[in-house]
Write a structure and sequence with these properties.
This protein has 2 domains: 11-46 and 277-483, Cytochrome Bc1 Complex, Chain A, domain 1 (2-Layer Sandwich); 56-192 and 205-262, Cytochrome Bc1 Complex, Chain A, domain 1, CATH 3.30.830. β1 and β2 (67-72) form a beta hairpin. The strands form 2 sheets. It has a 6-stranded mixed β-sheet, with helices on both faces. 40% of the residues lie in helices and 16% in strands. With 495 residues, it is of the alpha+beta class. 44% of the residues are buried. The model is unreliable at 1-36 (pLDDT under 50).
């Protein structure tokens, strides 16, 4: 269906889900309980390491600079595509125009020189197809993506090309977009998941563009049609772009389609823009958003980690899986199954073209804030100080490989792997060897990575809760800084 969703509701949901994990001081806490959770109904596993050889896409460069990637799969009469435009992401917004990239992408579907927003929606509805344009506040790229039955691909790509090349950013639609978006932006401040993630980003990245989570209502007000027109002209260029197709299409057919619809999209001569690593994080500290009357405390405990091309990436993947990778990770078992503090506790690794983060996250009742935080930090002590038992390590590695194997059933996901390879310039056989790399990670490597990256002297604790209930508790874990729900520092609080 092509009808537009309730944008502010989706925005709020996305931000609650965005409360990615984090991770903390932990150098002085005792190791946690080692009680095991009995796992029932386990299936036997084969000890042989998975061997795969992914189907290779065909690739080539077009005259206007676009890199073409095509992964043929004729099992179903459907084609998906994604166009990546480096330099058009929110990461590159100037300080005075934060949110411009996101607004430009969102508005491109709201009308072209020959189609109104209503006509675009009706045509997509008729074809049972979709086209989306998007970017994030910290994204380096903008994307144009779509999907259609093979018989409708020509019409869909004609529509997508029109949206890409000829958006008009109508003033009437811009006013509606601002109204919808502002409602969502204001609603988000009522969600503790948003508040904890917002402060965590600021703690991790300071004033760096990577710290941005959403534009503010004031920044949204400053977005103008003229600014979007200029941004589109300057940033939506083909020089360093890539377009990838998966499904019922050949390379020659895809090349002909792109050249016929995007042949007028000319190079600008713009240089490739790159991200930079953010400033190094400061000493360990505790940060609190005071949310009066909260009945729970939301935590993100974390630190800066690595970029995607770091040689330690797969080792950190395994380490993260042991600590908090799903319902069989240590955090979930300890904090939920053993102690009953929470409905869930997880960790996550975020790594892109600049240094990302490792974090652990949970939400607990206010009255168990102290023991829950101690136990979470205790798990970080344990992964640093104690070698992971052989069976536990093997199980977590197999879980990662099993998830990878299941993903290979989707041609779109396989194509995504090759797009990732293009972005990060990975070796041609990178994904073929993924199972071997993961299964080759040793307990010693996991412990070494934990000691290197989960440094207690740089671990940050970020919380949202009722200050009256949790301030004195949090002070036991380090120097404290307090903010209100508008993101402003509370003056007069002694660290």
């Amino acid at each position: 269906m092509s009808s537009r969703p309730n944008q502010h509701a989706m925005l709020a949901l996305a931000l609650v889900l965005a409360a990615t994990a984090a991770h903390a001081q932990g150098g002085q806490q005792a190791p946690p309980s080692s009680k095991a959770v009995v796992m029932k109904g386990k299936a036997p596993v084969n000890d042989k390491v998975l061997e795969v050889k992914l189907p290779r896409p065909k690739e080539g460069d077009l005259a206007n600079g676009i890199h073409l990637i095509v992964l043929e799969d004729h099992r179903a009469p459907q084609v998906t595509f994604q166009l990546l435009i480096p330099g058009a992401g929110g990461y590159f917004d100037a300080p005075g125009s934060v949110g411009l990239a996101s607004a430009t992408a969102a508005m491109m579907r709201e009308g072209t020189a020959t189609r109104s927003t209503t006509q675009i929606s009706e045509q997509l509805e008729t074809m049972s197809s979709n086209v989306n344009v998007g970017t994030g506040m910290t994204s380096l790229d903008a994307t144009v993506s779509g999907s259609a039955l093979t018989e409708n691909l020509d019409k869909l790509f004609d529509l997508a090309s029109d949206i890409l090349l000829h958006p008009t950013f109508p003033d009437e639609e811009l006013a509606k977009y601002k109204t919808r978006t502002k409602t969502g932006l204001n609603q988000n401040r009522s969600f503790p998941g948003f508040l904890v993630q917002e402060l965590f980003q600021r703690v991790m990245y300071g004033d760096d563009p990577a710290s941005r989570l959403l534009m503010t209502p004031e920044q949204l007000d400053r977005v103008s049609r003229a600014a979007m027109v200029e941004f589109h002209k300057a940033k939506y260029v083909p020089d360093h772009a890539a377009i990838a197709f998966a499904g019922d299409i050949s390379y020659d057919r895809a090349k002909q389609l792109v050249e016929s619809k995007l042949g007028a999209w000319k190079k600008s001569g713009a240089a490739m823009v790159a991200a930079k690593d953010p400033p190094a994080i400061g000493p360990a500290k505790v940060w609190l958003v005071d949310r009066p009357s909260s009945v729970q405390t939301n935590f993100i405990v974390g630190t800066q980690a690595i970029e995607r091309t770091n040689p330690d990436y797969n080792v950190l993947e395994v380490m993260n899986s042991v600590v908090g990778g799903g319902p069989t990770g240590r955090l979930f078992i300890h904090l939920r199954e053993e102690k009953g503090y929470t409905y869930g506790a997880y960790s996550g690794l975020s790594a892109g073209r600049y240094r990302g983060t490792w974090s652990a996250q949970t939400d607990v009742r206010s009255d168990v804030t102290e023991p829950a935080l101690k136990d979470l930090l205790g798990e970080l002590v344990a992964i640093r100080d104690t070698t992971v038992p052989a069976k536990e390590l093997q199980d977590r590695k197999r879980s990662l490989v099993a998830g990878f194997a299941l993903s290979l059933e989707s041609p779109q996901q396989v194509l995504n792997y090759y797009v990732t390879s293009w972005i990060y310039k990975l070796p041609a056989d990178y994904w073929d060897k993924y199972p071997q790399r993961v299964m080759g990670v040793t307990a010693a490597q996991v412990q070494s990575a934990a000691r290197k990256y989960l440094d207690p002297s740089r671990m940050q604790i970020v919380a949202v809760g009722d200050r009256k209930k949790v301030e004195e508790i949090l002070r036991k874990f380090g120097k404290l800084e307090v903010y209100d729900t508008e993101g402003k520092k509370v003056i007069g609080v002694v660290p």
